[in-house]
Specification:
- By secondary structure, this protein is an alpha/beta fold.
- The chain folds into 2 domains: 134 residues, Response regulator (Rossmann fold, 3-Layer(aba) Sandwich), CATH 3.40.50; 148 residues, 3-Layer(aba) Sandwich (Rossmann fold), CATH 3.40.50.
- It has a 7-stranded mixed beta sheet with strand order 7-6-8-9-10-11-12, sandwiched between helices. A 5-stranded parallel beta sheet has the order 2-1-3-4-5.
- β6, α5 and β7 form a beta-alpha-beta unit.
- α2 packs across α10 and α4 runs parallel beside α5.
- The longest helix is centred in the first third of the chain and has 22 residues.
- The chain is elongated, with a radius of gyration of 25 Å.
- It starts with a helix and ends with a strand.
Length: 323
């Protein structure tokens, strides 16, 4: 072997060592903070959906991603939990709607899921151009309001007078109420509106619904209203009122039927936002999206309690049936 060959042989592996060393170094660990309503010891389908969406995009916890979960069980805890979250210095915050206010003053990008209108809530400047450091998905599906009432009327043509339960402070509630009134007028029905700003006063609201002699119940969906949905479902069953709302979880809690966005799927969509931000896109450059996937859910147990037979055509169209 001549001198040139010896140097080439010696230099080849040596030159490769830095490359091999770089290849073996672990990826940079990125940090996401989740802020949800609930408790750490109770499984969350929304956090699970977010995790699933992140895995689909190559973000693996313990390998290149850390998700720190923060929970609050009520309004009185949210600010304190928000301060603790901020101190952890996350790169992205993913939050549910009731916890958004506790992170508004944090500089990190915030990705939200909200059942209301984020423009009305002043979380973003517009859907197309959010501005600032916040963006996400709104599942306020105004176009579906009429569909819910039409499904109810298709099943029970005798329904003439609907009671609407809604939180007036919910961003976009006035839009949903206007759309509901338009559909009710079109169908020659009557609407009685029962604002529920204080959810601890539901018994008084229920008495008012009975006094108004309504024959069906429409519940505008939001996270706070969902927290009392089992109470609403019990009232509706006892009063023999068919009930309708917008998320499948309301039907699973006892309402008769729901039609609206698949909420866990929305949190899977939020993984796409988090992924884009981690890869360098600013939150202000990501338009707020509206739901694209919807589900029709029937609760057959509630139907039996009300003495209702489900038309086969309606049953065949259901995406989910609760036996």
């Amino acid at each position: 072997m001549n001198r040139r060959e010896f140097i080439t042989l010696l230099g080849g592996p040596a030159a490769a060592w830095p490359l091999a060393a770089r290849a073996q170094q672990p990826e940079r660990m990125r940090r996401i903070a989740w802020f949800g309503l609930g408790r750490a010891d109770v499984p969350s389908p929304y956090l699970d959906a977010l995790r699933s969406g992140l895995r689909e995009r190559g973000w693996i916890e313990g390998h290149n991603l850390t998700i720190s979960a923060y929970w609050a069980t009520g309004q009185q805890e949210m600010d304190a939990v928000g301060h603790t979250l901020a101190a952890s210095n996350p790169e992205v915050i993913v939050t549910q709607e009731l916890t958004i206010n506790a992170v508004l003053n944090i500089a990190a990008p915030v990705v939200f899921g909200i059942s209301g209108n984020p423009v009305d809530a002043k979380f973003v400047e517009s859907l197309a151009r959010p501005g600032g450091n916040r963006t996400g998905v709104s599942y306020l599906a105004i176009d579906l309001v009429g569909k819910r009432i039409e499904l109810l009327r298709e099943w029970m043509p005798q329904v003439r007078h609907v009671a609407v339960l809604a939180r007036p402070q919910h961003p976009g509630e006035h839009r949903e109420r206007q759309a509901t009134q338009e559909v009710v007028d079109k169908l020659n029905m009557q609407l009685s509106y029962f604002p529920t700003p204080d959810l601890t006063e539901m018994d008084g609201i229920f008495r008012a619904v009975l006094q108004a002699r309504c024959d069906a119940l429409v519940v505008f969906p939001d996270a706070a209203m969902f927290a009392v949905s089992d109470q609403i479902a019990r009232f509706a069953s006892e009063a023999r009122l068919p009930s309708v709302s917008g998320w499948g979880s309301f039907a699973r809690n006892g309402l008769l039927l729901t039609y609206g966005p698949n909420v866990p799927e929305i949190y899977r969509t939020l993984a796409r936002y988090a992924d884009r931000i981690l890869r360098g896109t600013k939150a202000a450059e990501l338009p707020v999206e509206l739901p694209t996937r919807f589900e029709f859910v029937l609760n057959l147990r509630t139907a039996r309690t009300l003495g209702l037979d489900v038309p086969p055509t309606l049953l065949a169209r259901a995406d989910g049936v609760i036996e």
